Amino acid sequence: MIIAGNFGRVLALVVLATAALSGCSKAPPQALGTLEYDRITLPAVVAERIVAIDVHEGERVTAGQTLLQLDEAQTRAGLAAALAQAQQQQDVLTERVNGPRSEDIAQARASLAAALAQARETRAYYQRLQALKTRNYVAADDLDRARAAAGSADGQVAATRAALDLLLHGTRPEQVAQARAALAAARAQAEADRVLLGKLHVVAPRAGVVDSLPYRLGDQAPVGAPLAILLVGDAPYARIYVPVQQRANVHVGDKLQVFVGDRKQPYAGKVRMLRSEPDFTPYYALIGDDAARLSYLAEVSLGPDAATLPAGLPVRVEFAGSGK
């Protein structure tokens, strides 16, 4: 009976000691955060009216699916003008490459012949007046006018001869280069207008869920305003705030257990991003006696088993047992 009593007291002490130790144990280090998706914002490239909206908020879309349509009238007119300008520059380049026509050269030769004949006539008239001047049969004013007419005729001959030489020598290489550059600029402008026209047909760049459509049918959003916001990715990720005390123990690539909401079964996660600069911890991510209130923003990717989880749910990450 004495041995049984001693054994009972020893067993009671062991139970109490175990309870005391379990009561003194601390919870493993944790970090809090929320579930998030990668967001894609599709801004308005021009301030045009929305003429069609083909999706609604919360709808899942595929890559390339039409989301909405902006008015194309003004952009199409700009594209037509740019194409016409490009065609004009093409014609100018062709003209300069081909050089002057034979008809233009023949016309220049005829103009030179006429100028030479006119110069001979005026020069002969002036010489006749000079002969009469020695006998005082001609007034000085008439002689001066004849001299001026002869000089003007000679100048006209020089001008027409220069025009003929210009045609005979053809187009300068610099003019051809300028025409090519002008054509390239016109084509580039037309291509830019064509690209802009395509952007008025707003499509989903990736598969995802339509998170927000800030504007409605008939609205005219300013340039740069978001027309649609998509949540993309095969699964959400956990955005957590690592306390400054745990920063040295967390690395990109570490595997963690992520607890979502009040679910007891954790999800397997992997640290994909960890900021190097600390920031003040948001109030909802403070844990216990966090005197420093500093944390490092981190992102933990989740597997396909979390694909159906919505964004915004609170998450909790425990660092005990984490590793690569």
TrEMBL record:
Keyword Coiled coil applies: yes
Pfam families: HH_YBHG (PF25881)
Signal peptide feature range: 1-27
Domain named YbhG-like alpha-helical hairpin: residues: 81-189
Entry keywords, A to Z: Coiled coil, Signal
Protein name: HlyD family secretion protein
InterPro entries referenced in this protein's UniProt entry, alphabetically: HH_YbhG-like, UPF0194_transport
